[in-house]
Amino acid sequence: MEPPVRCGGYELPVRASAPNGQILSYPVITSGSFAHHDSIKNLLGEQYELEKANQSLENFVTKDTPPTFVWHTQPDDCVPVENALMLVSALQKNGIKTEFHMFPEGGHGLSLCNEVTSNSDAQFLPHVGKWFDLAAEFLQSL
Questions:
Q1: pLDDT tens digits for 28-43?
Q2: Which residue, among 98, 101, 123, has the nearest Cα to 112 in the 3D structure?
Q3: If we measure between CA atoms, which residue out of 116, 102, 115 comes closest to residue 24?
Q4: What pLDDT, on a 0 to 100 scale, did the predictor assign at position 18?
Q5: pLDDT tens digits, residue range 100-127?
Q6: Among the residues of 52-117, which ranges form H helices?
Q7: Which terminal Cβ of the chain has fewer Cβ within 10 Å, N or C?
Q8: Are 106 and 125 a contacting pair, CB within 8 Å?
Q9: How far apart are the first and last CA of the chain?
Q10: CB half-sphere exposure, 95, CA atoms < 13 A
């Protein structure tokens, strides 16, 4: 067992300090061939060249990774959908409870895809907007 994490004068078991679940929306996962390089550069700054190879999250999934809900749009022209696919594959290999939705339409940054958050007809996608209710149901199942 890993040593406890110190937080505010308390010692917490590692699992107690971890999230019970996570929701990832068109996530940047890899620093490999499908990377969204600008995100990795923003994260690492001056350490980019030195550390970029160590940032592929699909290589860090373990049995302790929390249950995960992932959604992505297939035609996303910002973050390649392969990022989500690589993560889901790693989650599956480690037996992590996972729910994944790849929607066949829509780009990056859709938010809720409804009339409140859409600034164009291209972002008003009620089918894709179902991700929110699906994610809420997933969290309730944990």
A1: 999 999 999 999 999 9
A2: 123
A3: 102
A4: 75
A5: 999 999 999 999 999 899 988 889 999 9
A6: 82-93
A7: N
A8: yes
A9: 23
A10: 2
Could you tell me which of 22, 19, 16, 14 has the C-alpha nearest to residue 88?
22
**Both tokens assigned to 120:** 């164009």
- For tokens 């910002």, the residue is 78
**Amino acid type, 122:** A
| Dist CA 33 CA 80 (whole Å) | 10
What the block records as the tokens of 10 is: 């308390």
Q: How far apart are CA 102 and CA 117, in angstroms?
A: 20
Cα–Cα distance for residue pair 32/36, rounded to 1 Å: 9
C-alpha 92: how far from chain center = 14
Least Cα distance to 130 among 82, 89, 69 occurs for: 69
d(CA 120, CA 47): 38
